[in-house]
Design a protein that fits this description.
CATH architecture: Alpha-Beta Complex
Helix content: 10-25%
Strand content: 35-45%
Structural class: alpha+beta
CATH class: Alpha Beta
Number of helices: 3
CATH superfamily: Peptide deformylase
Number of domains: 1
Length: 136
């Protein structure tokens, strides 16, 4: 189900609770909302559709991917970036890393580790910030 975008900064700055198995429907809604917004958005966190859970969805080189409880466990190559956000107005400056290693759970809630570089890494960092209540 395509959901409306949350724009309330008071809600968005709250840290998200861990995702659980019953959040699989939430992940589908997040992926459908991202797909419907693909002309102006490349990633979303669950709080962007009004649910404070650690679930993200993003464009991973043309394929949409969802992660449950993602955490960055290693990063390298800091650089300055400018980003926009569907939940906020304007463009903001931030620091991102060229390479990140992420610990997350897949749809079966199996723990996985994966290294991302470049654009997908930047998107994931933005969405994990959302899970942590950080707005750029």
């Amino acid at each position: 189900m395509i959901r409306p975008i949350m724009r309330d900064p008071i809600f968005l700055v709250q840290k998200s609770a861990p995702a659980m198995a019953e959040d699989l429907t939430l992940a589908r809604d997040l992926l459908e909302t991202l797909e419907a917004s693909k002309d102006r958005c490349v990633g979303m966190a669950a709080n962007m559709i009004g649910v404070s859970r650690r679930v993200i969805a993003f464009d991973n080189g043309g394929t949409y991917m969802a992660m449950f409880n993602p955490e960055i466990v290693k990063s390298s190559g800091p650089y300055g970036a400018e980003e926009a956000c569907l939940s906020l107005d304007g463009i903001r400056k931030t620091t991102r890393f060229r390479s990140i290693k992420v610990r997350y759970q897949n749809e079966q809630f199996q723990v996985r580790f994966k290294t991302f570089t470049g654009w997908p890494a930047q998107i994931i960092q933005h969405e994990i910030d959302h899970c942590n209540g950080i707005l750029i």
